[in-house]
Amino acid sequence: MAFSPNASQVDDGLKSELAKKGIVVTTLNQLYNWGRRSSIWPMQFGLACCAIEMIATACARYDIARFGAELFRPSPRQSDLMIVAGTVTKKMAPQVVRLYNQMAEPKYVITMGACSIAGGPFIDGYNVLRGIDRYIPIDVHLPGCPPRPEALLYGLMELQRKIDGQEIETTEWYQKGLKREYPIPDFGPHGLIPKFNPEVWNPRETENRKERYGEPILIGRKDKAPNLDLPPAPPRSAAPAPAAPPPEPAS
Amino acid sequence: MLSTADLKTKIEAAIPGTTLKLVRESLLLENPNDLLKVARFLKESDLGLDYLSSVTGADYLTYLESVYHFYSMAQKSGPVVLRVRTDRQNPQIPSLTALYRGAEFQEREAYDMYGIVYEGHPDLRRVFMWEGFEGWPMRKDYQQEDSETLEMADVAWLENQGVKVPEPIKAKAEELEKQGKRALAQKPGQPEPQ
Amino acid sequence: MIFGTGILQGLMVTLKNFVTSYFKAPDEGGIFTVEYPEKRLPEKERFRNFPFLLYDKNPENLRCVACDICAKECPPKCIYIVREFDKDGKPLKRPAVFDIDFTVCMNCGICEEACPFDAIYMDHEFEIASADRHAKLLYHRDDLLKSNEYFHKIRPTDASAIDARRREAEEKKKAAEAAALAAQKAKEAAAAQAKPPEPPKPAAGA
Amino acid sequence: MTEKTFSLHGAGDMDTQTLEINIGPQHPSTHGVFRMNVVLDGETIVSLKPVMGYLHRNHEQIAENMSYTGSMPYTDRLDYFNSMSNNFGYAMAVEKLANIEVPERAHYIRIIMAELTRLVNHVSVIGFLLNDLGAFFTPVLYAFREREKILDIFEEVAGARMMCNYLRFGGVKYDLSPEVLARIAGILKKFPKFLEEFETLLTKNEILCMRCQNVGVLPAELAVSASVTGPMLRASGVNYDIRKADNYSLYERFKFRVPLGQKGDVYDRYYVRILEMRESLKILEQAVKEIPAGDIMSKKMVPFLKSPRNFKPPVGEAYARVEAPKGELGYYVVSDGTAQPWRYHVRAPSFINLTILEDLCIGQKVADAIIILGSVDIVLGELDR
């Protein structure tokens, strides 16, 4: 089946003129996208702190229902959007990938909060995955820790904008040979196997974090344990050691 | 509430054979095997320490330690801090779960993080990490993996799944394999672990 | 009590809330929704989201002196600073690179607290979202720069307090400089005065 | 399905086969990423094993590599409903360690904030409990409406809705302005009315009563031996509130009572929380009225606000605990005299209160296990750390 190219003569000005008279002119694409973007059903799936802000977004004050996205579905089969709201740990990552695989096309992913984007403040933990985009493709990254409910709405609007730009003819899920299921990582002896999926994510040529900070978790490595058996130091030094004065402003 | 020193003499008098040592505000039990006896005494004597608030593992490089904080709910007194030391290679401490149910998960946590084996624990498994995880992540010498470099196991897994691994990544993994090394997270310039 | 009265009472509550939502103010039980993007909640002055760098007057004149304190204090380590050098390799008091990784930042505000030069503050901007985390969410120096006027707009009380403090410090510094200069001059003058007679020291001791 | 056969109806009856099911980690009513391996005989639970660690994000390890103040924002993320209480416990532990005095006004501000978080927590947890019962979202909507009003105050005072990062060792970060105090007083005036309404909606509801009463009964002896704390312990009738037992901060100055349950079932746990909110309101009213003027930071600690890395407590150890809304939140900190703690441990109430989950659930139906879990009130950030 071939679609004829969109050669409509109706421009935006004429459209609004017609709309005033009660006639709506639209293209199939626009109708299709309008329908899809106005009824994004997110998955009811909270991981950590951001999930609470997600619930707050669904509640009275922010009311995600105004965007047609209030129907939080507990089952991946019924949802269009996965909001990865919270830290994805290595123990949880296989389940997240599995849920993504189980979602029906078209499917979108918003990573909400710093943790799900790149590990966030917990990036150096031994059990924290440095970003879920190592295993699945992400549509919108939404930084913040946690993002305000308004920011989540903004992210949703960003996704709607993305949906508006899609066309029936070229969308991935109507193409042949679509592969949108990604291998689910296994638990290994030291972490996940594999550490990332090179089909989706590759380490950057210059890995900023490693280059710049090394591994910050080792900064505090100490080779001398405190000896609590010794009696406490005399009361004079019971107070914290006198600090170096902070640098004087404006030198 | 008794002072720690009084408590020490009281326990030593009540349970012959135990030796306690004052460490700051806490009592160090010299022989870990006496732990159950001492805890029973704390719970059942007139001290009435019926509530085990916290069990903590800790790594002091030359030995591992398990710290117990006891309180009394009935008398609203406490805390009594008890600590037990064990060696790093074969860390074994009797479990208090039979006496205090509240120790169950906390001992599992200390086992998970430090590898302290609590003898007599009904269900000593890892609690936070998965089964099959190697190493004790909270010990000070734990080496984290480098999450940006693939190892040969990862490459083999990916190829088994039909994922094409880019050449440079694969070459790096093979190089590591040849040298018999793991991809570890290290600060640049830090000496390599033995 | 008849079975079911509890449920009926509960239903009355929901009905009452439904009806009053049409008449009352949001705080009294009326419609509580704030229709973001059209309407917004009033911004709280202290609200903090991501950090930004402050400059006075023009972007060349930024307050940051690349002292690296915020980068060291940052708990999750998301700030990266490289000092700028001039042609002769002499270090300048300004950053060549100032990167903040928004995918790691946790909005704690410790950089703002620790900065001794009033150069870094927390922004109110939260409408940041992007499909590319590497290119768009790693903010560089020029993306982070914002003017003092902007700071006054978002946090009037803090900004004026800080400006007042800075002015005072500046004046004090100037006064101190002037005083030092005057002292220097006086010293020189005194030295000049004292020089001609030149009291012979050994003589005084003898 | 297991091979093992099993009968609960006495010998000679029908032989039934047990069924193993897995609830979670992605399940709408496990309050996050919590998993239960349940063995069922029909609808009745024969065994239940909690599986944790899906949100284990290495809080302790990260804190041991961080300056003392640097861990403060991380404690916010432990129990993300009540960041202020978490800050409170941690600040107390370090103050004990370094022997820091806190000015009176700062104590009052801390207490005000801690009690406000208690309101936030209890009101949300009741909403979620009702969610689990099947009253989908209506109570949560009511609860979150009140929560938003309190969060507005947090945002105005501390700068963030959830992750306040407000307390500092030796005091608090910002002062409370008279306007904020007036707004808190305004909330206190309206909150009892909301509680009345909430109670009319729920407390006498027959369905709620039938679902909750005599479900998940926790006997007092077991509760004490299993180190259960917080509203859950008091619902079983044990009079133990750390605010009274330890008299930490300035709690002895305030008049309030400790509500106790009788049976220790889910309904008691629900009702103890409602009563606790009323007591919190009492504390808040007194605190807002009596708050003295003065410093908000100890003089000794003011320089360290600007340079947290220079704060080095002397070698020693300290354990401090507070009555967090979920139970006893304890922090165990060992200092080796450097800028980072040698050992940092959190005694998380959600984690330890779960010890007896299996005991509560055995013999109950699957649907009851969900509400028992809801009434235990867990938060995964704190459970797994």
| CA-CA gap between termini of chain D | 33 Å
What is the overall pLDDT average of chain D? Answer: 87
Tell me roughly what share of residues is in helical segments of chain D: 40-55%
> Helix count of chain B, per DSSP?
5
Description:
The complex is a heterotetramer of chains A (251), B (194), C (206) and D (385). Chain A has seven helices and five strands; from the N terminus they run αααβαβαβαββα. The radius of gyration of chain A is 25 Å and the shape is elongated. The C terminus of chain A is likely disordered. Chain B has 194 residues and is of the alpha/beta class. Chain B folds into two domains: 116 residues, NADH:ubiquinone oxidoreductase Nqo5 subunit (Beta Polymerase, domain 2); 45 residues, no CATH class. Chain B has five helices and seven strands; from the N terminus they run αββαββββαβαα. The longest helix of chain B has 13 residues. Chain B is elongated, with a radius of gyration of 23 Å. Chain D contains 16 helices and ten strands. At the A-D interface, α3 of A face α1, α5, α12 and α16 of D.
List the helices and strands and how they pair.
The complex is a heterotetramer of chains A (251), B (194), C (206) and D (385).
Chain A lengths: L11 H9 L7 H10 L11 H10 L22 E5 L7 H10 L5 E5 L1 H5 L21 E3 L6 H16 L21 E2 L4 E2 L14 H6 L38
Parallel strand pairs in A: 1-2, 2-3
Antiparallel strand pairs in A: 4-5
Helix pairs in contact in A: 2-6, 3-6
Chain B lengths: L3 H11 L5 E4 L2 E4 L5 H10 L6 E9 L3 E10 L4 E11 L4 E3 L8 H12 L2 E3 L32 H9 L6 H13 L15
Parallel strand pairs in B: 2-5, 6-7
Antiparallel strand pairs in B: 1-2, 3-4, 4-5
Chain D lengths: L4 E2 L9 E2 L1 E5 L11 E7 L2 E8 L7 H5 L8 H5 L6 H16 L5 H30 L4 H21 L8 E2 L2 E2 L5 H25 L3 H7 L7 H6 L5 H5 L6 H4 L20 H25 L11 H5 L9 E9 L2 E9 L5 E7 L1 H5 L3 H5 L4 H11 L3 H5 L1
Antiparallel strand pairs in D: 1-2, 3-4, 4-5, 6-7, 8-9, 9-10
Give a quick rundown of the structure.
The complex is a heterotetramer of chains A (251), B (194), C (206) and D (385). Chain A is of the alpha/beta class and 251 residues long. Chain A has helices spanning 12-20, 28-37, 49-58, 93-102, 114-118, 149-164, 208-213, and strands at 81-85, 108-112, 140-142, 186-187, 192-193.
Any descriptors?
heterotetramer, B: 194 residues, Beta Polymerase, domain 2, 5-stranded mixed β-sheet, 7 strands, C: 206 residues, Alpha-Beta Plaits, 3-stranded mixed β-sheet, 3-stranded antiparallel β-sheet, 8 helices, 41% helix, 15% strand, disordered C terminus
